């Protein structure tokens, strides 16, 4: 039996960590996922949408910032 890593969890953690490291914590410091250095920023769009719906990420146009501290 093969083990598959939980890709959605890894992706979520990568986005949150990367935005936190780059200081995207408010509307003023919001940045696109590419600017923050997120690997394959257009991949897994559903995960990004889910993070926004749950309030973990906030969206300001095409830019994102953390909605949690």
Give structural attributes.
3 helices; 41% helix; alpha+beta; 12% strand; 69 residues; single chain; two-stranded antiparallel sheet; 2 strands
Report what the structure shows.
The protein starts with 6 loop residues before the first helix and ends with a strand. It is 41% helix and 12% strand. With 69 residues, the chain is α+β, with helices and mostly antiparallel strands.
List the strand order in the largest sheet: 1-2
Question: Beta fraction of the residues?
Answer: 5-15%
| Spans where pLDDT lies below 50 across 5 or more residues | none
Q: What integer is the average pLDDT?
A: 90
Helix content: 40-55%
One letter per element, helices H and strands E, the order comes to HHHEE
End-to-end distance:
39 Å
**How many distinct helices?**
3
Rg value: 12 Å
SSE class: alpha+beta
Query: Which outline best applies?
Result: globular
Largest sheet: 2 strands, antiparallel
| DSSP, total strands | 2
Topology summary:
Elements: H1 7-21, H2 33-36, H3 45-53, E1 57-60, E2 63-66
Antiparallel strand pairs: 1-2
Summary, kept brief:
It is built from 3 helices and 2 strands.
């Amino acid at each position: 039996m093969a083990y598959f890593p939980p890709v959605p969890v890894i992706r979520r953690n990568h986005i949150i960590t990367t935005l936190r490291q780059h200081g995207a914590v408010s509307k003023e410091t919001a940045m696109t996922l590419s600017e923050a250095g997120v690997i394959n920023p257009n991949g897994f769009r559903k995960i990004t949408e889910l993070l926004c719906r749950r309030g973990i990420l906030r969206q300001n146009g095409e830019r994102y910032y953390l909605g949690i501290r």
